[in-house]
Amino acid sequence: MIYNYEILSQLLKYRGKDRNRLHMPGHKNSAAFRAIFPVAPIDITELSFSDDLQCPTGVIERAQCDIAEIVGAKRAFITTDGSSSGIMAMVGVAAAYGTKLIVPRNSHKSVFNACRLFGLEPVIVQGKEEEGVLACPEAELIERLIVNDVSIAGAIITSPDYYGNIAPLKSYAEVLGKHNRLLFVDGAHGAHLALEEDREGYAGTYADMWVDGAHKTLPTLTQGAAVLVGNEALSERAAEAMSVFRTTSPSYPIMASVEYGIKYFVNNPRLLARAKEAVAAFKAEMEGVTFYPSADWAKLAIDFKPLGISPSIAQDALEKKGIYAEMNDGRYLLFYLSPLVTAGQLAELKAALLNVISRKKNRGTYRERPSIPAAERTYSFIYALRQQAEYVPLKDAVGRMCAGNAGVTPPCLPVVIAGEMISSQAVEVLSSAENTFGLSDGKVRVVRR
Fold first, then answer.
1. CB atoms within 10 A of CB 81
2. Residue 15 — pLDDT band, cuts 50, 70, 90?
3. How far apart are CA 104 and CA 10, in angstroms?
4. Nearest Cα to 62, choosing from 107, 131, 6?
5. What is the pLDDT of residue 376?
6. Could you tell me which residues are beta bridge partners of residue 209?
7. What are the tens digits of pLDDT across the range 208-236?
8. What single DSSP character describes residue 402?
9. d(Cα 68, Cα 129) in Å, to the nearest integer?
10. Among 6, 267, 375, 417, which has the minimal tally of Cβ within 10 Å of its Cβ?
11. pLDDT at position 434, please?
């Protein structure tokens, strides 16, 4: 079946007919603005023909129905506010079913922000560290927690994560379902998995509600995402939550691109197979290079520790050739792929990497990075947030209780969480990171003594 691009088709019909734009946005599709921002002709507001994301009945409604059908959901909600707005909505739904929510430690900062907004206590669980990356917690751990605490609404799981680890969602769903709890999935990094034939690793195969970050791995403009509902009983609450967290002035180009990105590979299935073949060939050709054992073909993380080379040196060399990686975490250089990646792009990457690896002067430059500590939780998250607080220099924060999350970005994961005692290891991680959140001028927020 070939899907029509409902929103984009409607916008293209309007283009050229707007002789006198006396409506928002303020750029009015002027020639000067259009020359800098070519998307201007289809950047409009809610008009008589364009439908309304707040109460869709036309092209937006048809687009959302198609998206739900494609990914196997009961309801679909386009959002132009990124995956974070979907996470806020999911946690808002969870708040109706309990006062606590199981949250793996490697969850995005927006999960903790949402718990704060709704007064939900995050029950932190942590998997083992494997090859320098936090793995998913075992399903047995989640079951032990929910059996002993009826106030836990369910769990919100990141799958896949930045490195391509896919959580054991089937096991989670079985455990949570057995005890009448809900499974929410931050699938922001896995929208492309809906295109797989068996969908075994796709969030929507098991989740009651999930978010797909279409812009991360599909041909979609940045901030374009979709929030999906698999459990019909959550539909009304999900719609209400989305109305709270979505903007009332959504970008029509972003909306159109969400629909386009999700439908594009359904309409062009050969592209997905071609991309996967190119990635597999690239890995096979990179002899002597160690890759992080990702379960997601679209995450290509090269381990520079065995090479003895600083990934920063490799990153600089690649950027001089116009090749940009997604992230350098001090050990791995992560390349974020999509079904649009080509064999030519990967051949260019291969040549540049081999050049870096072959240079003798680069050897012996690798430095071990500090790992994220497993902190001991002394007080609750909500309790710590409500206490009087002060900012102290990181070096003076060891042994103090954190009054707000602080972490490293990307991938926006907390190193220390509100209610935890700050360890010397946490200080080392935060001090050595190039980009952080939760710090202010090298100071961290702690509970006042």
1. 19
2. confident
3. 42
4. 6
5. 66
6. 184, 229
7. 999 999 999 999 999 999 999 999 999 99
8. B
9. 35
10. 267
11. 86
- Gap between the Cα atoms of 447 and 426, Å rounded: 16
Residues 6+ apart with CB under 8 A from 367: 310, 330
Q: Collapse the DSSP code of 148 into the 3-class scheme (helix H, G, I; strand E, B; otherwise coil) and give the result.
A: coil
Does the pLDDT of residue 438 top 90, yes or no? yes
Q: Name every residue whose Cβ is closer than 8 Å to that of residue 105 and which is 6 or more positions away in sequence.
A: 124, 125, 126, 127, 134, 372, 374, 413, 414, 417
Output the CA angle 413-321-336, nearest 5 degrees: 30
**Three-state SS across 167-223?**
CCHHHHHHHHHHCCCEEEEEECCCHHHHHCCCCCCCHHHCCCEEEECHHHHCCCCCC
Span 369-373, average pLDDT: 74
Question: Which of 315-318's residues contact partners 24+ apart within 8 Å by CB, and which partners?
Answer: 317/352, 317/355, 317/356, 318/349, 318/352, 318/353, 318/356
The beta-strand segments (E) located in 376-418 are: 389-393, 406-408, 413-416
The tokens 């992080």 sit on which residue?
292
Nearest 10 degrees: Cα torsion 420, 424, 426, 427: 110
* 156 membership: H or E segment, kind and range: strand 152-158
Residue 267 pairs with which residues in a beta bridge? none
Cα distances from 181 to residues 90, 148, 154, in angstroms, run: 14, 13, 5
Six-digit token string for 195: 């295109």
The conformation of residue 418, written as its DSSP 8-state character, comes to T
Residue type (1 letter), 301: A
- Chain-centroid distance of CA 295 in Å reads 16
Question: Can you tell me whether residue 400 is helix, strand or coil?
Answer: coil
Report the C-alpha gap between 394 and 209 in whole angstroms: 38
Nearest to 330 by CA among 353, 349, 350, 305: 305
Task: Let me know: does 214 contact 258? Beta carbons within 8 Å.
Answer: yes
Predicted confidence (pLDDT) per residue in 286-295, tens digit: 999 999 999 9
Asked whether 436 and 413 are in contact (CB, 8 A), the reply is: no
Spatial contact of 291 and 300, defined as CB atoms under 8 Å apart: yes
CA-CA distance, 320 to 393, in Å (whole number)?
36
The predicted structure's pLDDT at residue 116: 96
Global pTM? 0.95
Rounded distance between C-alpha atoms, residue 227 and residue 186, angstroms: 10
Report phi then psi at 100, rounded to 5: -135, 155
Element spanning 374, H or E = none
Grade residue 304 by pLDDT with cuts at 50, 70 and 90. Answer: very high
How is residue 406 written in tokens? 């602080």
Query: Of 91, 161, 78, whose CA–CA distance to 120 is shortest?
Result: 91
Element (H, E) at 2: none
Closest CA to 156 of 99, 102, 117: 102
Reduced to 3 states (helix: H, G, I; strand: E, B; else coil), residue 127 is coil
